[in-house]
Write a structure and sequence with these properties.
mainly alpha, elongated, 81% helix
């Protein structure tokens, strides 16, 4: 019987989602003489200031890294729900581990694609990876739902 490591994927996913933000800060500081406004980093005035003080390519990469970070945080709830429901339903550990590992791998690929893709043509690769990771979560939630429905039918 496989050991269930899937719960550990939740904090791992949080870290994977946080890394693009850290990268965004790093590239802006590197291009901006080490300056970063940690007191108000989401201020439109700060964004306007850094946009004017760094090359356009760096600012674009910064924006994409921040967008990847936000997307990761937005999707963390879906992934956490997926893992928790799978565990409550007592799905096989091998299935839980596989879903968790695949999802994390897809999030890493998605993040790298988001940060590094500048053309519309190739941005659809990123979209396909995102859609695949979302469908993977739906698959797991549906499997868990089927277990709950089966239990409910058996108890009546």
């Amino acid at each position: 019987m496989a050991t269930n490591y899937s719960i550990y994927a939740i904090p791992a996913c949080f870290i994977v989602s946080l890394l693009p933000h850290e990268y965004a800060i790093y590239i802006i500081k590197a291009a901006n003489n080490g300056r970063w406004d940690n007191a108000n980093p989401r201020s439109p005035a700060w964004n306007e200031k850094i946009q004017k003080s760094v090359p356009a390519a760096i600012f674009g990469k910064y924006e994409r890294a921040e967008a990847a970070h936000k997307n990761g945080m937005e999707n963390l709830a879906l992934f956490s729900t997926t893992i928790i429901l799978g565990n409550v339903a007592a799905l096989p550990a091998s299935t839980l581990n596989t879903v968790a590992g695949l999802y994390l791998a897809m999030r890493v690929i998605y993040t790298l694609a988001y940060i590094n893709t500048v053309s519309v043509k190739y941005s659809f690769v990123r979209t396909a990876v995102w859609a695949s990771s979302t469908l993977l979560c739906f698959y797991q939630i549906i499997r868990a739902g089927n277990v709950f429905a089966s239990r409910s039918r058996q108890s009546t």
